[in-house]
Write a structure and sequence with these properties.
This protein is mostly beta strands. The protein has five domains: 1-29; 36-164, Jelly Rolls (Sandwich); 170-296, Jelly Rolls (Sandwich), CATH 2.60.120; 301-439, Jelly Rolls (Sandwich); 444-579, Sandwich (Jelly Rolls), CATH 2.60.120. The chain is 4% helix and 45% strand. The chain contains one helix and 40 strands. Strands 1, 2, 3, 4, 5, 6, 7, 8, 9 and 10 form a ten-stranded antiparallel β-sheet that branches. Strands 21, 22, 23, 24, 25, 26, 27, 28, 29 and 30 form a ten-stranded antiparallel β-sheet that branches. It is elongated.
């Protein structure tokens, strides 16, 4: 009995030893002490630590990384050190020279480093997008990812003159004229540059270059299609990591003018979204430019000539118009800040019309960028080449979220809510005359506040100036009238308008073609039935002169084709105008 107890204790001891051995095996080796230690790594990550050397020092480095297979030398997991100010790689783990155990490589090395700040990196993504596949079940097959528990890098200055520092990594290029920062997947970052005199700039860009459909970096003169500089495989060098990682670092000559600098990424392998090992300078994924600030700078119209016309601090329910007369060809800069949603949904925005032509420019979500604050706050800067002629600038807002009534987070420059037109050069301002500027619509004497024709029964038929009702799909009716004195008219319009657009609606134009009134979602009320059925019932005061009135419908939802969503008075679909002073 006593012997059985001894045997049982021996078996328990052996089991405990086996557990300890297994734990020690799975835990990996211990990490030696050092100034900078990177360990406890997962596959598919890149880790960075920053440190500072107060004096020059020989630095000892102990690193354990991996190659992709037992017979090869393709780097899979490894470390390196980058000097922060110059972005120079001062040391990288040489996986072809070290203590080799299957795919694991242990490196003990030293290097002299000058005083300064450094970034230490370790990556474990593998050389390609497929490097982490094929590892086998339970880790029994030899595969570099099985080395995970061993990966580490320890950095120790031999003279002890160093310290770990915490830095804002993206701040390394704060002295650049312009920087994209570290750019992630599916992003486009751009700016405009003004070059005052012939100059040479330094461009530092890191990107993924393929045969097609990867990242792009270009500098193009404004209004031209061909860039004066772009990243290509021919003018770049290997950037480390994935072979498609490429780097440009060199001078580029620029002549005076305005340029657009653009950096665009595709849908994979970018900052914070690596599919394989990143470049040696991961936070530089993007583009930045240095130069003499007296010769080249980011273009900012607000620091140049005074605007030709400006609508700023625009509140709710505004409809503003400026008529511009251009005496000779001119280049203008239009800056519009407003509320623009996704798709075609716009609430507060600007556009420009040419005489006899529809819109020559309008603010859109695709061509605008964030204005700060809420995601619907958008700003667009457009460069327009205009020929001689008459142009009408418009800016409208809906009933909420505008200057003085922010329903959500306000933009970075709330006072710029509206639109401003600047001359590109001071001389351009002399070629444009502002004919009129202010509220666009004719004075509204009265308007209904409730659904339906709540201003009472229509006037007598003898007072009617224009009647186009019971309009079906795809119809357009126009008419004309004139007044010798200021005249009040009552308009009753019933049409189809939604937050996303106008489909069946009416308008009044002056003899010069300027719109003096039109049906909008903002100035109409629900008319019953479908939510898109809207009615305008109001009285306008029109100045002496000649006017054209019109109403048009689109291909669906009109008189005779309402389905189950007809308004309360379907026969009134269209527009009626009455002379109240007759």
């Amino acid at each position: 009995m006593k012997r059985k107890r001894v045997v049982r204790l021996q078996l328990l001891a052996l089991a405990a030893i086996a557990v300890l051995v297994f734990w020690r095996f799975t835990r990996g080796p211990g990490t030696p002490p050092g100034l900078v230690t990177i360990s406890d790594l997962d596959e598919g990550e890149v880790v960075v630590r920053t440190f500072e050397l107060e004096t020059g020092s020989t630095v000892a480095i102990h690193a354990v990384g991996s190659v992709e297979d037992e017979d090869g030398q393709v780097p899979a997991a490894y470390g390196w050190i980058l000097r922060r100010d110059s972005r120079e790689v001062v040391w990288t783990q040489d996986l072809s020279d070290g203590l080799r155990e299957r795919t694991r490589v242990t490196t003990s090395d030293s290097v002299w480093m000058e005083p300064g700040t450094y970034e230490a990196y370790f990556t474990s993504f593998g050389a390609t997008e497929r490097s982490r596949s094929g590892r086998g079940a339970l880790g029994l097959k030899a595969h570099w990812t099985n080395d995970q528990k061993f990966w580490q890098m320890v950095i120790t200055p031999t003279n002890g003159a160093g310290q770990v520092v915490r830095l804002e990594l993206d701040a390394w290029d704060d002295d650049a004229v312009w920087s994209t920062g570290a750019v992630g997947n599916r992003k486009t970052v751009s700016t405009r540059l003004r070059v005052e005199e012939p100059t040479e700039v330094r461009i530092y860009a890191v990107a993924e270059l393929c045969v097609r459909d990867c990242d792009t970096a270009t500098i193009t003169p404004l209004g031209e299609d061909e860039p004066v500089w772009q990243m290509t495989r021919e003018n770049t060098s290997e950037a480390g990591g994935l072979l498609r990682n490429r780097k440009f670092d060199g001078p580029v000559a620029l002549q005076p003018g305005i340029y657009e600098a653009v950096f665009t990424t595709d849908g994979s392998h970018a900052a914070r979204g690596w599919r394989a090992n990143p470049p040696f300078d991961p936070i530089a994924w993007g583009m930045r430019l240095w130069g003499n600030p007296e010769q080249v700078r980011e273009f900012d119209p607000w620091t140049g000539p005074e605007p030709i016309v400006s609508f700023r601090e625009v509140g709710n329910d505004a409809d503003l118009e400026a008529v511009l007369e251009v005496s000779e060809p001119v280049r203008l800069v239009v800056v519009s800040t407003g509320e623009v949603g996704s798709g075609d949904t716009v609430y507060d925005y600007a556009w420009l019309e040419a005489e006899g032509v529809d819109r020559v420019w309008e603010q859109t979500v695709d061509n605008s960028e964030s204005a700060g604050g809420d995601r619907t706050n958008r700003v667009e800067t457009a460069f327009l080449d205009l020929e001689s002629g008459t142009y009408t600038l418009r800016y409208v807002t809906d009933g909420s979220h505008a200057f003085g009534d922010w329903r959500r987070r306000e933009p970075a420059f709330p006072e710029r809510w509206g639109v401003s037109v600047f001359p590109l050069e001071a001389a351009d301002g002399d070629r444009v005359q502002v004919i009129s500027s202010g509220s666009r619509e004719a004075p509204v004497v009265a308007v209904s506040d409730d659904p339906g024709e709540t201003m009472g029964a229509p006037p007598d038929e003898s007072q009617i100036l224009f009647n186009a009702t019971r309009l079906g799909n795809e119809q357009q009716r126009t008419g004309a009238f004139s007044f010798e004195k200021k005249t009040r008219v009552r308009i009753i319009g019933l049409g189809e308008l939604s937050d996303g657009g106008r489909y069946d609606y009416g308008w009044i134009e002056s003899s010069e073609g300027a719109t003096v009134w039109e049906m909008t979602r903002r100035n109409t009320r629900p008319a019953g039935g479908n939510d898109i059925n809207r009615i305008y019932d109001g009285i306008l005061e029109l100045d002496p002169g000649s006017y054209v009135i019109g109403f048009k419908t689109d291909f669906s939802h009109s008189y005779g084709d309402f389905g189950g969503g007809a308004p309360r008075n379907p026969e009134a679909w269209g527009i009626r105008v009455y002379n109240l002073d007759r």
